[in-house]
Amino acid sequence: MNAILIIIRKEIRDGLRNRWVLAVTLLLAMFALSLGFLGSAPTGTVKVDPLTVTVVSLSSLSIFLVPLIAMLLSYDAIVGEIDRGTMNLLLSYPVARWQVIVGKFCGHLAILALATTGGYGLAGIALQLAHGGLDPAAWMPFLLLIAASILLGAGFLSLGYLISTLVRERATAAGIAIGVWLFLVVIYDMALLGALVADQGRIITAPLLNALLLLNPTDIYRLMNLTGYENIAMFSGMAGLSGQARLSMSTLLLAQVLWIAVPFALAALSFKRKSL
Amino acid sequence: MTKPHVQLRDASKIYGRQRAVDRVTLAVNPGECVVLAGHNGAGKSTLIKLILGLVRPDEGEVSLLDHPASGRGAARARRHIGYLPETVALHPSLTGAETLDFYARLKGLPTGDNAALLARVGIAQAAGRRVGGYSKGMRQRLALAQALLGRPRVLLLDEPTTGLDPASRLLFYEIVGELRAAGAGILLSTHALAELEGQADRVAVMRSGRKIADGTMGELRRSADLPVRIRVSLRPDRADHVPDGWRRLGPRRLERSCAERDKLAELRRAQAIEGIDDLEIETPGLDEMYAHFLRRDDS
């Protein structure tokens, strides 16, 4: 069997064993359900599928939660194994370093994908059943949400791996990971908003704003979910923005894939050069 | 003459301003057990990492089974090496059997022989339990088992017996002896030299990254020229007399040191001491030789 596959299998087994997958699945399902039931209370009489409303609130929540989970999974991936001494042993086997990092990344991504799909999927089914009948049409945005969440998670996994290969101490990695998370998830948007208000459209034009939004994976995620479907755009109050900021889905997708590929390539390079 | 399995030529590794390994030349031949002795921080672990390709040499060359140690060829050659790290670190959530299966697959080996290997190191009964719940000795045995996977041609053992109980230690040396007999080249680092007396074909002493001595036990002993101690016990009625050159140890015990070459003559003279009851000879052990080489290098 290929070394990468062996490492992927081991990572997934690790994730299942130490209850990572279970805990994250339950956490996501719980949040999705509570948002679904609470969020649909005001729309009770409106003829809107509960899933559509849930996508709006859930994507806002996922922006915080999924990157955090991805960071927690990944910041330790390389530096932790070096610290514990398991990396030296692993690299004494006929395995190349790129195989190690690719295998671990794919394993972590599988864990994240499993938990996201499981958690949100279960919640989605439960919500639709509770409101009578399964409506396949409402599932498209919901599936897009799940897919976009996995992509967002993959981006932050990549960033976490990059951090994990660059530092020498686990504590430093944890600190930087939380810092990066805070910056991209909270501070970036606040600063951008502040700049927009102060600027009054003089310097920051629509194309520039588009570019600025593409520089943050969480904004790409928001645009993917909230402007991807007309219904959703309307409910989320993003119809105005998406009218101006016309970024096509393929542009968004490309940008998000770059957010995964570039940090990961840098991480692999830095790991290859690392002295253990 | 067969080629050495492991070969270092003037290899250096520099961290910042410190030369962790300083122009070391060393070879490990097939069927040979080389002991790497030195204090903590003398560069033993870095030297082993150089051989494993975990760090690149800043100067000189390191080769493993005829491949440069940090190249692609060596990555494939690592199938034939076994490594026991200084601090045994295994994945706590896997069971003993799963751990061994994982490492066997990485070496491209069938996992069918693993049960026998676990039995060989004496942890067959714990194969289905998670490593997190193992005792230190059991973890060490499991780590030894992974190092033995696939009958390695080169064994690199970094302080393998620290913290082992006597039974595990005995088992360990038995297994090392078997592999050596089968033609494996073994490099073993330690600072407890005394227990290696019968195992080591060659001893290399490291100090501050440099190799300060290298040779067989006999060569080292001759070059160290450490004094031999002769001790005699006297009968109670003769205990008050101390001959010239002898030192009093206790009420009835005397001691004298002499050079290796004068040993026989001194022994004859000792037997002539009046009232002698018993006689002991103490030749310098590995630990003393080791201390001697480290001291000599200081001055």
Short description:
The complex is a heterodimer of chains A (about 280) and B (about 300). Chain A is mainly alpha-helical and about 280 residues long. Chain A contains 13 helices and no strands.
Descriptive notes:
- The complex is a heterodimer of chains A (276) and B (299).
- Chain A has one domain (3-273).
- Helices cover 82% and strands 0% of the residues of chain A.
- Chain A contains 13 helices and no strands.
- Chain A has helices at 3-17, 20-39, 50-74, 79-84, 86-91, 97-130, 136-166, 170-199, 206-214, 217-228, 230-236, 239-244, 249-273.
- Chain A is globular, with a radius of gyration of 20 Å.
- The model of chain A has no long low-confidence stretch (mean pLDDT 84).
- The radius of gyration of chain B is 23 Å and the shape is globular.
- Chain B folds into 2 domains: 6-222, P-loop containing nucleotide triphosphate hydrolases (Rossmann fold, 3-Layer(aba) Sandwich); 227-283, no CATH class.
- By secondary structure, chain B is α/β, with parallel strands linked by helices.
- In chain B, 30% of the residues lie in helices and 28% in strands.
- The chains are: A mainly alpha (276), B alpha/beta (299).
- The interface between A and B is medium-sized, with 22 and 34 residues.
